[in-house]
Amino acid sequence: MIVSPADAADAFTAIADQVLDGQHLLALVQGESVDLDDETDSEVATGFHDRVVADEGDAPASGQSQAYEEFRSLVTQEYAAATEPLNMASLSTRLRTRLGPSISDSNWFGFGSFARAVASLTLSNLRMSQHLLWDSSRHPAPEATTAPPRVALPDPVERLVNQLNLPRVPQPWWPAIYQTLADYAQSQRFNLTQCTSWARDQLREQGLSVSRNAVGFVVRGTSFGGCPLHRLPPPTADEIAAAFVGNVLSRADAAEIAFSEDEIATAHAWLGAPVDNSAEQVVRTESSS
After folding, report:
1. How many domains does the chain divide into?
2. Residue 28: pLDDT band by 50, 70, 90 thresholds?
3. Residue 58: which residues within 8 A CB-CB, separation 6 or more?
4. 120 and 234 fall within a common domain
């Protein structure tokens, strides 16, 4: 196992059976669960896998019994009424709305993730995949999906992916990531583990299968770019975009990745930040933090 920042060289991390990045390490130090459920080779979720996410007999965190029982009641009702597999992102969003701060404050009642909290209920015939849950006695198992085509990137963005581990996501997804993080900053008390999980679920509700690693990459880049999500007043989507893209290009310059002015403009356009906003931003690179 290697403990390494998310931008470690592929040649280094490729030799490991498992890699813990800064986000995972922070979660462990804070006594939280490390959720590796959706960390796949592609940013776009692929395939179908059953999984076991909690053991029978697991109990909620101390002081959470009442909220947990309300959670049990709501999930059981939805599970019993479902005529087809339930989308986990949609269900978790509805539960957050109904149960309010009790979910965020307790990090899913001490289980660390929505999936583990659901599994703790030991619902009859429950089966779960990365995105769906269903009753195997009433619902047919979802069909496996095949990997989508590899996202084609402009040459300067491809170089950022190869040398800085920039997430390989389609261009239209970047503005949605920034807006989702801005929504989180406006509505939630910042916690990195909860932020990446919340943002991932919100993005998947929009049909964008962005992993927590990709969200965490943007959160860290935004912070190093001088615009942390815990800032007051909370940053806007445009400010998050400018800080993140400015930091990425600052790191590229520090890594001696040579770009022409046109290539810099291409990178800005792909990553969804206007050149005039980001180019003027003073950034701090990760290496100087």
Report:
1. 2
2. low
3. 111, 116, 119, 120
4. no
| Exposure class string for 94-130: b at 16+ Cβ within 10 A, else e | ebbeebeebbbebbbbbbbbbbbbbbbbebeebbbbb
Confidence of residue 12 (pLDDT cuts 50, 70, 90): low
Residue 273 in domain: yes
Average pLDDT of the segment spanning 93-122: 83
* Domain co-membership, 284 together with 178: yes
The per-residue pLDDT for range 37-51, each reduced to its tens digit, is 444 333 443 334 444
Q: Note whether residue 19 is domain-resident.
A: no
Distance between CA atoms of residues 206 and 259, nearest Å: 34
**Residue numbers of the domain that contains 191:** 155-288
Residue of higher predicted confidence among 218 and 63: 218
- Which tokens go with 253? 């310059």
Same-domain check for residues 73 and 195: no
- Residue 267's nearest CA partner among 150, 153, 163, 149 is 153
For 67, the 3-state DSSP assignment is: helix
Question: Is 21 part of any domain?
Answer: no
Average pLDDT over residues 258-276: 89
- For residue 288, give the DSSP letter: G
Q: Considering only residues 134 and 194, tell me which one the structure prediction assigns the higher pLDDT.
A: 134
In a domain, 100, yes or no: yes
